[in-house]
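Section 4.2 – Deliverable D4.2 (structural model, holo form)

The reporting period included a commitment to supply a predicted holo structure for the target in complex with hypoxanthine. Inputs used:
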Amino acid sequence: MEEFITINQIDKAVEVIKNKTKYQPKVGLILGSGLGDLAESVNLADFIDYKDIPGWPVSTIEGHKGRLVIGDLEGKTVLIMQGRAHYYEGYPITQIGFPIRVMRRLGIETLIVTNAAGAINPDYKPGDVMIITDHLSLMAMGGENPLRGPNLDEFGPRFPDMSRCYDPTLIKLTKEIGDKKKIVIHNGVYVCLAGPSFETPADLRFLKIIGADAVGMSTVPEVIVAAHSGMKVLGFSGISNKANLDGSTVTTHQEVLQAGKEIVPKLEAIIRGVLAAM
Ligand code: HPA
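Output (structure tokens):
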């Protein structure tokens, strides 16, 4: 697979999607591990399998359906990614941003992104929801930045600002909706690691010291690409497990999928509220 994406490849995918749906989505939604059921309540949806979109990275992971669901939710036209590809599946980091580029060229202005994450913050428990207020991208710091390679000037500048990549207005709105619906929502910092192995206890103690509240293997590459192109981003972590800082427990993918069942109704209520108020 080629490392760098061209505008022609992006626009080919855009054409295919436009030919398969009557909708013009304005909001994009990425549903992470175990959270895909959120897409089931979209009205009169069009479905497009990732494998039918040229260049679209396909996920091989259990709990990721691998299709777009496009339709109306709370009066907004949304394009939902029911599952996502991850860096650890073998894609170049630049390819992980491909769907976001396509969304932008389709006219999407706001991205709501979700993931399953382990809790580093001792106040969090499985089933909780966290708004991502900022992120630590150890991968991007280490060189695996999704914007590496020739800059696509159609989207944004060579050196994009990242000081407000999670939209403060959307965060405030989400907190108000959580209060109104009596759903506890944490504010926290998400750290993205390459995966697929979970962290060692020493990894986790390090991540705690550097300021992470939740840890996962996704989201940050997509958010960097979205911020580059001027999209507003709202990010959520569904807390699926306590991170194992003292080595006393083990983390499994089944546990992550199980916690998703508790998180989906909460996230659905919050996201519906946000969409209705947007
Ligand atoms: N670590 C990394 N990624 C994860 C975890 C975790 O504990 N839980 C869900 N995704």
